[in-house]
């Protein structure tokens, strides 16, 4: 099937198998490998991308379901070398160690802040429930989301 | 919040934000799965669904004929490949031959049986489903105590008692100590099997370059050089023509401190098909086939006087090894024995280990590796003892600590604790929680029928592994520091960081020593073609051992820089400081960059001095380091649901000198999360048929953001005299200190109901049943 997708502001058209997962489309067809596969069952959140304004887990969606969609991946967040405030906050607050969950964490954190400009600690933790991290114990990630909120990130 | 620093400030000890982060937060880092090569093929491994079975036949024809498939290999094809290595040696150890693919039998669910190689990952997966294996299913045994019972199924038919080894260690006069005791506390304590669950599963890309007889192996590992030596050996390759590249590694926690069948298998496949091949472990495979941790059943006896003085400890460990020995499998429980006295001044100890084969995936090093088990055991026992004697758990600990004036302290298990002030973190933690008032509040809460607990653990751990005679491979670490002709500094470390942040901390050390800017330093690691031989990152060793190697290489270079500076300034009276060599008489100076240019241009050389500014140092530590600390956990239990709420978590850790407090906090938080996972939620459960029934993220309960308490992390600082940096290591501390503090707190909460001990994980169901039973 032929699909056309807007990814990070650029339009892509490809012929894809109906069973191709969106995450494999992004990583292997388009070549954006920042979105990671952690579990293939939508439980770990490493593959989180923004699709038509909503954070979705791209490992449990087919590429054909994204036909006509507007997608933002981790690669689309910084513009002209300037980091997104959420990226900057993860860096400043040491919100990552091995970095594998980080793209998904950052995308999920952006969604939290888009819905709530000043989330409480509890709201942040609740918002990150769908994203696993094995390195940080989440505390510095919570700090990062708080710092991004304080810096006015959305 | 990290600070931004200018060049003139010293960097060691500052909260410097990490230099590895820009690539990680922008999605531009390269993990194994991100590697693409022209002509690359994909491998899918067919695995046994049975825990024990004979293989009658394997039908591969349909798979081989499937679209896109280039090859199918079974154990008959890979017979020429050497066994998966066990690096541990113990007297009388039985080592089963561990083929990379099963030949005639399978020994655990997930045992690799065949590999399908296709031009596309989806096609390889399709074809894998076409392979038919005819199994003659045999009885299995998954529980180590059942495996020791008479008549249990034999995991390996040649050893019907399922015993891989027994091990005995003894110090002091144990029988005398127990004869003189006023009280002996006894308890069976388990440390359940856990799944390390790094966020990135394992993965391998292998590329065979026939004309050069060279294998390039990209693998997600903590030990690239050891993988090179051992996989080259398995495949019969020349080690200097094998290159192991460890790109970004998405977490290890010990699970990638190993050499796995798939690493050799992909090398074998790439050579056979003459094309690059990629294998990425699925999450399901990760649960079934990557090593598990822990798996202890411990029987403790602790003898004490009525005043609380601990006289002696007896410990019997039944270690669930799984079906095979991976790299360090049988050695892990010996670390528990070494640390069995904990922080206590106890001269009489006796330990016996039985290493047991089961039809499960092997256990091996998982964050803490033997030390969490030992700490959990002794810290539970001290609480049980305090309860029997009617003593306060803080008081009994303070009474038995190794006194501060006894360091270095020779333990009854043959170690020498390097330095310590064990009361300091406990007193600090007690102050932080306002212990006296907390106990008053608890007394009041109990009167109202509430279940509130206060749990203490005071842990010690053996880190910075280690002196070479005590390690299966060398215990040293290597560093090369190169000052390039333009004055830029490149550090090559033999350690292989994968999230710990040594690209930052080692740059802090180099920048301070040379007086250059942080951004002038680049730290490289994880490519055997670039970096001199190294050991790797595990056992909280990278900074203590690898950082020390960097430090000593820098000292060599500083001496050489001074020599060149003295020649250029025509003075013997020079000082190196702030990136400048200055003449103490004239005040004239030359920068490190100017000296580097002169050292490579080599128009003139100081006497007996070679051109260039490169130094390699292999540093051998004289001893381990022994970090320590105290964790206090305050819990409340909901009587109706069995739910445990952690009200406070205070961690006071002493990891010696702190090079970067931001990173140390991160290590503590992450360590505590994994300890808390063990204490409250996680368990790898095998049923009687050897099926892993918690083998998916749906069933295996990992800590999530909303489940974690806020961790109040503080420190005391007792520098280690073992290394020039004074550091002890912190990667495993949080995990080791955590679980006994949590369980002690919950048992304390339940003690009015007559509960004396609960085994982990403390699931709400388990707690609810205990509460209900007492009603």
Strand sequence of the main sheet of chain B, in spatial order? 3-5-1-12-9-10-11
Rounded to the nearest angstrom, the distance between the terminal CA atoms of chain B is 49 Å
Distance between the termini of chain A: 35 Å
- Oligomer kind: heterodimer
The overall average pLDDT of chain B, rounded, is 97
Determine the most extensive contact between two protein chains: A-B, 60 and 60 residues
What share of residues are in beta strands of chain B?
A: 15-25%
Please estimate the helix content of chain B.
Answer: 25-40%
How many strands in all of chain B? 28
Radius of gyration of chain A from CA coordinates:
15 Å
Strand arrangement in the largest pleated sheet of chain A: 2-1-5-3-4
The major sheet of chain A is characterized as: 5 strands, mixed
DSSP summary: helix tally of chain A: 5
Provide the gyration radius of chain B in Å.
28 Å
Structural class category of chain B: alpha+beta
Number of helices of chain B: 19
